[in-house]
Each structure stands twice: as structure tokens, then as C-alpha cells.
Amino acid sequence: MNTALTKLKTQLAKIEDLKHVSALLMWDQATYLPQGGSEARARQISLVAGLLQQKQTSHELGKLIDDVTPLISQLAPEASDAALIRVAREDFDRETRLPATFTQRLYSHLSRSYDLWVKARPKGDFKAVQASLAHTLELSREYSEFFPGYVHPADPHIDLNDPGMTVAQIQPLFAALRTELVPLAQAIAKKPKPKSGFLNKKYPEAEQLAFGLQVAQDIGYDLTRGRQDKTHHPFMIKFSLGDVRITTRVNPNDLGDAFFSTIHEAGHALYEQGLDPTFEGSPLGHGVSAGIHESQSRLWENLVARSKPFWKHYLPKLKKRFPAQLKGISLDDFYRAINRVQPSLIRVDADEVTYNLHVMLRFDLELQMLTGKLAIKDLPDAWNERYKQDLGIAPPSARDGVMQDMHWFTGMIGGVFQGYTLGNIYSAQCFAAALKTHPKIPEQIAKGQFETLRKWLGKNIHQYGRRLTPQDIIQKSTGKPLSITDYMNYLRKKYRAIYALV
Amino acid sequence: MNTALTKLKTQLAKIEDLKHVSALLMWDQATYLPQGGSEARARQISLVAGLLQQKQTSHELGKLIDDVTPLISQLAPEASDAALIRVAREDFDRETRLPATFTQRLYSHLSRSYDLWVKARPKGDFKAVQASLAHTLELSREYSEFFPGYVHPADPHIDLNDPGMTVAQIQPLFAALRTELVPLAQAIAKKPKPKSGFLNKKYPEAEQLAFGLQVAQDIGYDLTRGRQDKTHHPFMIKFSLGDVRITTRVNPNDLGDAFFSTIHEAGHALYEQGLDPTFEGSPLGHGVSAGIHESQSRLWENLVARSKPFWKHYLPKLKKRFPAQLKGISLDDFYRAINRVQPSLIRVDADEVTYNLHVMLRFDLELQMLTGKLAIKDLPDAWNERYKQDLGIAPPSARDGVMQDMHWFTGMIGGVFQGYTLGNIYSAQCFAAALKTHPKIPEQIAKGQFETLRKWLGKNIHQYGRRLTPQDIIQKSTGKPLSITDYMNYLRKKYRAIYALV
Fold this sequence. Notes:
The first copy, chain A, has 502 residues and is mainly α.
């Protein structure tokens, strides 16, 4: 094998390992860290981040990438090594564009910004975070300037999480989706609500966790290569291809909270557990984009675990665990309750129909902030105005309005929210393609059999990691580029039936 | 403040943080790591170890230490900064004496050695590990050669864990202790055994854990700066002065296993939680030696938690948790059962009287191996012979003989075992000194009050960390150098009463 390529792989494997060390520090911070350890932990995370940046931007690494670049012309374009060189080049270029001084300024600002937000959010005190958020916006624009040649200042941010995507591609897609979703949500709002109170009876924690983890295993989450712990905010995190963990939270008065978040995170985990095992220690060994990742979590959470066939199999099992709470509840009652649509203020609590309205308005506000069309001081009013337009309601306080998500207070403005809606769109497109090849998937789901679906996803999506671009993966697996058609067909069919719409 | 000193402290703080990052990787390996993650974890641990060694042996660090060394003459000998410079110098000198190539050879050999041991131990197949152990011995001797000027080749090993101690000091101390312990154990062996079967009834895990953790908190273990998790082998580990964790294991058929190991580890943790808080991020912020550390764990485990006053307070509470299992058991029954003396094959299961016999024979065998008087092939016979002499029994297989402890198979030969017995000796000497100042400590213990004792330990032992030497700490806190007098007085008085010896 080429010596430079071998050396490059060794260097990249160290970078991967160091990323995973950093991830463990964060996982422990979210799961088990005692209060007294938090200051030291922040220091440890920052130390490892510094060591990582040194390795990611070292002259030696740059030299190795230069040395191997000519190899690409000798390799098939889809060969792992060609992809490795491409990805290593992309990562190195991005990392080296950012001066270490900028990164330090950014992270030290965001750490203060987060502290301010934690204190101010309960009171909804936007004034207390306004100046800090304005500085975050300045830094977010400064970030874009390190990537000259962009069309929209949000593009470099978007590219970081959804490589290859731009505002120019996303904006028309989201506009079309909004045009469809707003009237659908309005039509549903006029209909009587399904009863759902039984979901809010008392459901003991241990039984909720056991049920969720059992289903996660049924759909294919491998506990010899993963585990579940409790955190305030659920997430999926990876320490190697053989150690992909999920976390969940439990609300003893809400049967859906832990369950759907467990399946969501298990969906993310199935993606990482399904990567080509030869990608261990390689930058190819990661989900390819935020949108594709979210498509895997949403596919299992919504298209599978909020479907009627799924509960045909699992409702009897759930009733065995909670006989008193679910007494007399029919499959139809249950299905309608878990798919209840209700315009609400909080994104993370939103149903399938209204969820994207929350996301897309954030995306649009970000674009306006980044281009200077919207000043931070005017953000709460713009937020409330758009909520009224799209959802017919507005928050009484910034706590449940513009301050509800941590994103703008722990990270830059731009580049994150689009992934949630892209994920929903992709999820339906993938599921439709899987069903086209295997029409019996719904019947199998109704028997608690998920292997056909999981294998289709493994073969068409999971295995590739970053070897193919998101665009290539979607084209190859679904036979067409990203489109909202399958997603809107899915939503319309499902919710027309539930709400007896014309 | 002196600029070089400030720079040195910054460098040392990074070294401390990196040590703690490494510790977290190991903690997770022992607590929660799924099987599939173990290969990557070994790689991550080795990566961080490499980064740590680079920092610990960097030319820059050596230069800073040289720059600040003249400051010592301007500082009081007990001043923290003087101690910091001394300790930094000692650590740097030791780390730089070992060539990186030696460390790599050593760790890669030990990793193979451990794998061999894990496979061979269940069958007691000493032949399968013999060549590997012989190589460990060679490497252990090679280690000593990096520290020329030693009197005994075990001295550099001992100095690593019990700084300032040598074979010349330890050997006569251990010989005297053995002369006392062997006849004491033999006299006890002739007496009828206290009944103890009730300790092996069925004790549900959750209740055992809850009781142990409650007592750990009662003696002062602070859960806002610590936590407890389950592992195969219990241990204490630290990620910062505000995050000192313990682990335990539970045997549902042995009430003593989880409880005494929890108190043992909590004793270690009290030491680390009791360090001067200004030592955060400093190499002074660690227990000073293996022996002193073990003295703190053994003091709480044995002198406190195996005492009669202690159970006067806690037995009624224990009976509330386990009313059926402990029905009709008197304080005296319980006290005699948890202090049952019984010559046995396994060190970690041994009682207070015979425990040191297990330790001292290992120490003596190590010395013989390191000087070449005992060949590895003759080790099992030498082991069995000495067990017969000291304990009157010999193992039927190497599994419960020379292969029982992981120490010689995961580490070098030499330098570790002495700490266990030094700890026992120190523990009684400290406890006697505390009682001399505060004669009411036993009465307080009988009321579940531990503050006087803990504060005495905090003031006289814990706070110093590595600021004073172990020898200075013992001299200062007990008014005399290390001696077996208090320890033998304690054992004789306690066990003469329990066993009605003349």
C-alpha cells in the first residue's frame, strides 16, 4: 500500500479516537457527572478540543493529504480510498480556514452565552441575552467570511452540517412545503380532537424504560455495541463503531415522551451501527449529514412507530405492562391519540404536521439575521408574528418563544435547523423507496418484523457513511433527487384518514 | 507572581487534566462500556497515554522546572510552591528516565500478559503464562536499571508507589509483624468459630447498595462531589477534586462484600475529597502514597466499620432493611461474625488477622524474583510452600494460588503489595493518635457521629496531599515514625476478646 496513504490513515485514526475521547467527556457530563465536577470537566473538554485542533490542522497532516491527492485519479470515484482522500481534504481545508484565535473567541463567548441563557430563560428575560446574542450573530457572520465565495452567508453554516446544500436549494423546497402544511394544519384545527388523556396517566419509569429499550432492540439496536442511559435531553453519541449509545428521559405522566424519543435515538444509532465496519478509525465512519441522520431517526420514530401496523403488534404488549392505564383503549384510539395534531408553542413537543412549521420559521429568521435584514432587538416580535401566521398562536413570554431552544445560545446562528426538516422530507422519500422494493414491509411491521426495512436502510443508506455525498445517497437509493412529494403524500394520506378531511 | 512559576502551573494543570481524561476512559471501561467498544477503548487509552507522556517529558516542562528551582531557597520548606517545585521535579525526573520505547514495550507486553492470564486463570494453567511472566520479570528488572544507585532492585518500584520507602526499611518491619501474626492466627485457629451463616442469606441488591451508600454518606462521602457505580472489582477514581467516584460490587448471598468494600472505597474517597481545594489542577492534589491511601480506606473499613460501637448504631438500621434475614441476631453475634478469622487461600477475602500474611508473602517472593533467587518456573512451589508455613493451607491449583491476583499479570513485579500492609499499619497508628486527642471518638461512633474523626483525618492527613512526604505526615500526625506497635495492640486487644485468647 502507498506509504503516504498508510501514514495518513494512521493520523486520521488518531483524530477519530480523540474526537471519541471528547465525546465520552461530554456523555459523562450529560449522564453521571456530579455537580462538583463541572468546572474541571469544561476545562478537560477544552483541553482535548485544543489537542484535536492541533492534530486536525497540523502541517504534517496537510502534507500527507497533498502527497496522496494524485492517487485519486488512479482510483474509482466510489472507492473508499478516493472518498477518504476527498473527505480528509474537505475537513482539513475547513479546519485550517478558521484561525485558532477565532475558535477560542467563539467557544469562550458561547460558553458565557449558554450561562446567560440558562439564567434568563426561566424568566423569559430576552433583554438579558440580547447583547450576547447580537455578538453571537457577529461571530456567525465572521465565520462565513472565512469561506469566501458563498452566495448566502448561511451557506457555509449549512455546508458544515448538510454538505452540498445551500440556501438557494433549501428556500424553494421549504416555501413549497409551508404552502402545503399551513392549510393542512388549519383544516385539522377545525376538526374535533381525538381523546388522548390516557397517555398522561401515571406510567412508572422502570416499565417505560424497559418497554422502550425492548422495542429499540426489536428494530435492531444492538446492545452489545451500545447502551441506554438517562439524560435531561435525549441524544445519540458514538465512541467507536462498536459503541454507539443512546440516552433518554422519562416523564412518568407522559407515555409518549420516553418511548418516541427512545425510538428516535435508536434510529440515529441504527445508522451508526450500520456503517461499513471497515470505516472504524476513518473519517468516513460517520453519518453523512444532519439531514440524512435525522431522516433515519424520524423514519423509525414516525413512519414506523407512529403507524397503525406497528401498534397492531405492540399495543397488546404495552397493555400487558400497563393494564390499568390502557384498559378499554382500542388500536384506533391509541393510534389517533399518538398522532394528535395541535398547534403549540414548543418545537420539541410538536406533532408531525406542525413540527416543520416551527423549524422553517427559525430557518427563515436565521437567514434574515445573517443578511442583516432582522436585528436581534427585533427578533422576539418577528418570532411572535410568524408564529401567529403559521400556527395561529403566539407565546406569552420569550421563555416559550425565541428563548425555548438552546441552539442559538450554545452555537452559532445558522446551519442547524434546516437538518430537522430535511430529515423529515428524506425520511418519507426513503420509506417510499423501501416500500416500492418491498411492499410487504407494513405487513411485516404488523408482526413486529423489521429486518427487511432495516436491511434496506443498511444497504442503501447506512453502510456508506461519508463515502458518498448525501445527494448521491438519495439519488441512488430512491432514484430521484430530494423532493417533498413523498413526504406530503404520506402526511396527507395519514392525516386525512385520522381527521376525516375531505 | 513569578512568570516561570505561572507557566509551570499552567503546564502542570494540563497534565493533571489529561490524567483525569485518561481516568474517565478507564472508569467507563470498568462501568458501562459495551463489549463492542473494548478494542477502540484500548486504543483511546493508549493515545491519551502517549499525549500525556509527551507533555510530562517535554523539553519545555524541564526548562520551566529548571527556571523555578532557584525559588525554593526563597520559600519556606513547607510552602505549597516549594512542595510543588519538588514534586514537579521528582515526577519529571522519573518520567524522563524511562525511554518512550521502554514504556511502549512494557505496555504492549502487559496487555498481552493480561489477555493470557484471563484465559489461563480459570484452568489454573500456570504453564500458559510462565514465559510471559518471565518476560514481565525481565522488564521489571530493566525498569530498576533506569534508576541506578538503588540498594535493592525492588526499591525503584516501591518508590513509585510509596515514595521514600525501601526494602531495607520494610523488610524488618514486615518480619516483626509476621512473627506476631502467625502465632496469633494459629491460636485463633484452635478456637471455635463464631456463627456467621446468617451473613450468607439472600440480601437483595438494591437494599444492600442503598444501605452502603447511606453509611458512606454518613461518614462524610459527599455525593455532590462523587457518585457510586457498579464494577467487577471495586475502586476509587478521581476526575477532579470535585468529582471523586467510587465503585462497588454486590453479592446477593454475602452481606459483607458490598458493604465493607463500599466503606473501604469511601475511605479512599474521603482522602481525595479532603485535599486542600487549592490543589485542583496541581500535582500536589493526590493522596501522597499507596500506603497512606490504603490507611484511610482500612481505617474506615476495619477500625470503624468492623468495630462494636459502629454496629451498636447501625445494626438496628440494618435490621430494618433486612428484618427476616437478621431476626434474633444480637450485636455480639453480628460483631463476631463480621470479624471471623479463618485462614484462607484468597487474599481479597481474608480477615484482618490473616490478610497481611497474604500480602507479606507476595512481597517476599517479589524480592526473591527481582534478585534472581527465585525463578518463575519455581514460583508456584515457593508460593504453596509459604502458604503452608504461614496459613497452614495450600492451594489445590494455581487458580487460587499464584494466579489469583491480577497484579503480576497487568503490571510489573514489585512495588505494589507492600502498600496494603503499610496501610494497615498506618491505619492503626493514625486511629490511635486521633483517639489520644479525642478519646470520645468511639462513643461518637456508637451514635453514628463521625465528624470529629473525619476532621482529625482531614486536618492531619487529607489536606496535605503530596505537599508533605508520607514520613513527615505520619511523624507530624502521630508524633512518631511508622511502627507496628499500635497495629498489633489493636489486633491483639480486639481478637483476644472475640476469641477469648489468654
